[in-house]
Amino acid sequence: MSDIYPQSLPCRFEGFPARIRVVCGQAFSQARATPYSFGSRVTLAQTPKSGQTFGALTVGQALPVTEIIYSDTGDDAVFDLKVSHYGCGRLYLADAQARFFTLAVIKGIRVEAAGIRRSFETVDLWDTLIAAATDVSVPPTPVDTIWLEDADAHDRVRVTWFVGSMPAGGRIVSGRLQLAGVASIQA
After folding, report:
1. Is 89 a member of any domain?
2. Whole-model pTM over 0.85
3. Contacts for 7 with CB less than 8 Å, ≥ 6 apart
């Protein structure tokens, strides 16, 4: 099943390091074509395709592919071990009597080596306040604007801007703002 936009949304990958170190599991003991075995410690580097989006975010079409990819050679095509992180969010109605949509956040890891190709996924379910009668086949028209400004490539400083409505000469802003940490408001 392909995930169709806007009923499904792509994940935003953040904070992945340039290199990771992994320990090979038991499957490597049975895979004779790989140079690694159970317990081998391998350093992997992000590949050139890592973090790039392939395809366009188009209404009614499958989500474009974006993955964080690591391999032992740092190459996408030539490797002995490659690990890819992928994911998306999917809106759906849990049953015929559901009053609101549920958001399933799918996160996965795919391991590829000679003789091995396995994927491991987790699914987190989130209740939303999106009414069941809402047409989620059309992207919502933005009334307010929210954008993210990253100050540097290391994700050390981030500012989320919110634009809503404010009465002339007033200091009350109406709108919704979700925060995940310390915040300050400047007028």
Report:
1. yes
2. no
3. 90, 91, 92, 136, 137
How many structural domains compose the chain?
1
51 in any annotated domain: yes
Question: Is 153 within a domain?
Answer: no
For residues 9 and 140, the answer to whether their CB atoms sit within 8 Å is: no
pLDDT for res 138: 81
Domain that holds residue 121: 8-136
Cα distance between residue 37 and residue 54, in whole Å = 33
- Rounded Cα–Cα distance for residues 138 and 129 (Å): 17
Radius of gyration of the chain (CA): 21
Contact 100, 45 (CB under 8 A): no
Average pLDDT over residues 65-87: 95
Q: In the structure encoding, which two tokens stand for residue 187, read together? A: 């007028």
